[in-house]
Every structure is written in structure tokens, then in C-alpha cells.
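Worked example 3 (structure in, sequence out).
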């Protein structure tokens, strides 16, 4: 084989290689953009998550964020979104996963997000771990630190597609001109503010969080066990009769409850001059919503959610609120 023939074969070989290279490339529409994520698919999953969150469809939002994370596991904003979605849906194991991944990707986020991590430990029932974390967060509350908004990211710009402008009666335009697809305005989700350790506990004083208790009942107050050892921090045992179980296992009709006087956030210590008396107890025969954090008694009595907050008058307003929360949870 002559040198000329060899060079010609080399040229043909290179042409074939180039042909097969172009053949296996994924097709991409003319003018189509991959968006800020570098991927059309990832951008669409992120947008679908943001739209679902705005529509309060937290289940779909979570799944879309998990898909986006699977395709781009190191983008912090996807974990911020997963965090906020699952806080709203009360899926604290997913919230913990989101925070742990944020800390792995960027360890500098541990200090400013310490209070949020303590909140997660609390809701997961890891109280021994939560207490020192929240205490440390409270100590660091006044330290200078960057502000982080844990919020579902706004929808990313959709990939643009070039299309030919339509012409017809009453329309103007030149055939062949390009028009960028319009991106509809998306609702802006207000950012979640960073809470101090005390604010984390205060945030827990809500029906939305109390509704995650293992047991919720409507009960009638009967009276309390009288003894000489009742103090502000040593409450009496109040006796209730369950009239309806809204959530949880079939408890005995007779319900002994540790009647705490503090909601564990406000007035943890007894107010000046406080003294126990029958006036500190509810009216006999009154009806109450009782939120029982754990459906197992401790020393013969049940603990209510966040102490005194776990006993709410069974008013029409409160009953409507709790029934609405439970209905929304069932339909999620």
C-alpha cells in the first residue's frame, strides 16, 4: 500500500467516526435551552415541584424534588425545596434527610440551621438529642451569621423553543421569524424565616403540629386526684371520660391526664404568688380536645402535647379546625 492510499483510508476512517458520533447524539430542537440546571429534564422536575407546592400538593412536590435530586444530587436549592415541602406535610424523616444532605454538601450551613435541626430531632421523638442542639442554637442566636431562607425555590426558567410566527388575516409577521415561548408567572412563596431555639418551640404551639400526636380525643372533665403535693411543676392527675376518639388506638374510656400548668414555652416557672387551688382546674362536665403525644401512660397518666397546650376547649371553632386538619391529612 502506498503512502497516498494509506492517507486516503485514514481520511475515510475519520469521516466514518464523525458520522457515527453525530448519529448517537440525542436530538435537540433548534433553539432549545437546557436552563440554569444544565438539563431540560431537571429544570422541568424542579418547576413541577414548585408548581405542586404552590397548589398545596405536597406529595407531588416531594416526588418531583426527589426526581430532580436523583438527576442532580449536589444542588442545594433542591434540598431547600424538599425541606420546606416536607415541613408543611409533616414528613420529618424527609426533613431530616434534606438537612443532612445540606450539611454534607456545605458544612458551613450547620450553624445557621442548627435550630431547624433541633426542631427535626424533636418531631422525630429524639428528645435527648434535640435538647443540647436547641440549647446550643439559643446560645448562637445572637452571633453574626449568614441569613438562609429555607424556601421552595421559585420555578426555573423553562427551556425556550423557537417557533415560526403565525401569519394570517389581521396578523403581522414575517415567516421565519422566531418567538420565545412565554413563561407564565408563578406565585411567589413567602420565605421561611430562620427561628431561634425558643421560636422553634413556639412554632410547635399550633393545631397543625398538635395534630401529629399519636392520639386525639374529645373528653369530659370529671375532677382531679386531691393530694397535698400539687405544685406548679408537680401537677395533679386530672380525670376525664372519653366521649369520642378522633385519632389513635382504642383507649380505655377513663382517661387520667397529667394536668400541666405550663405550655413548656411560656411561664415555665410559676408566676409570682402562684398557689394551687380548685380554681386552677376546669369546670366539671366541660368538654375538651385532648392531644396525647404518646399513647402510652407514664406513671399511670398520659402526657398531653406541649403540656397545657395539649388541652383545648371543645368549642365549635376548635372542633372545626381539628376536623379540617384531619380531613386534609386523610386526603393528602
Amino acid at each position: 500500500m502506498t503512502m497516498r492510499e494509506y492517507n486516503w483510508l485514514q481520511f475515510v476512517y475519520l469521516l466514518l467516526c464523525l458520522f457515527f458520533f453525530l448519529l448517537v447524539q440525542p436530538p435537540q430542537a433548534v433553539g432549545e435551552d437546557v436552563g440554569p440546571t444544565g438539563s431540560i429534564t431537571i429544570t422541568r422536575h424542579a418547576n413541577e415541584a414548585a408548581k405542586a407546592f404552590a397548589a398545596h400538593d405536597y406529595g407531588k412536590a416531594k416526588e418531583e424534588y426527589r426526581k430532580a435530586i436523583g438527576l442532580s444530587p449536589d444542588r442545594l436549592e433542591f434540598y431547600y425545596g424538599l425541606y420546606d415541602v416536607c415541613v408543611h406535610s409533616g414528613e420529618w424523616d424527609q426533613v431530616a434527610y434534606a438537612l443532612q444532605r445540606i450539611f454534607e454538601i456545605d458544612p458551613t450551613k450547620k450553624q445557621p440551621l442548627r435550630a431547624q435541626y433541633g426542631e427535626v430531632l424533636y418531631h422525630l421523638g429524639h428528645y435527648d438529642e434535640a435538647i443540647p442542639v436547641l440549647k446550643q442554637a439559643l446560645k448562637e442566636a445572637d452571633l453574626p451569621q449568614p441569613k438562609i431562607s429555607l424556601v421552595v425555590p421559585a420555578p426555573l426558567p423553562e427551556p425556550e423553543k423557537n417557533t415560526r410566527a403565525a401569519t394570517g388575516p389581521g396578523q403581522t409577521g414575517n415567516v421565519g421569524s422566531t418567538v420565545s415561548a412565554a413563561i407564565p408567572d408563578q406565585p411567589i412563596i413567602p420565605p421561611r424565616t430562620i427561628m431561634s431555639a425558643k421560636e422553634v418551640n413556639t412554632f410547635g404551639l399550633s393545631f397543625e403540629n398538635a395534630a401529629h400526636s399519636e392520639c386525639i380525643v374529645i373528653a369530659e372533665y370529671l375532677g382531679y386526684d386531691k393530694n397535698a403535693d400539687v405544685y406548679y411543676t408537680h401537677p395533679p392527675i386530672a380525670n376525664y371520660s372519653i366521649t369520642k376518639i378522633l385519632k389513635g388506638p382504642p383507649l380505655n374510656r377513663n382517661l387520667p391526664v397529667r394536668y400541666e400548668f405550663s405550655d413548656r414555652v411560656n411561664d415555665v416557672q410559676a408566676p409570682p404568688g402562684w398557689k394551687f387551688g380548685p380554681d386552677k382546674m376546669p369546670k366539671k362536665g366541660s368538654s375538651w380536645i385532648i392531644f396525647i403525644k404518646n399513647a402510652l401512660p407514664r406513671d399511670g397518666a398520659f402526657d398531653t402535647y406541649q403540656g397545657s397546650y395539649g388541652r383545648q376547649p371543645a368549642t365549635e371553632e376548635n372542633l372545626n379546625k381539628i376536623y379540617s386538619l384531619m380531613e386534609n391529612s386523610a386526603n393528602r
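Notes: The two ends are 75 Å apart (CA to CA). Confidence is low (pLDDT under 50) at residues 18-34, 160-203.
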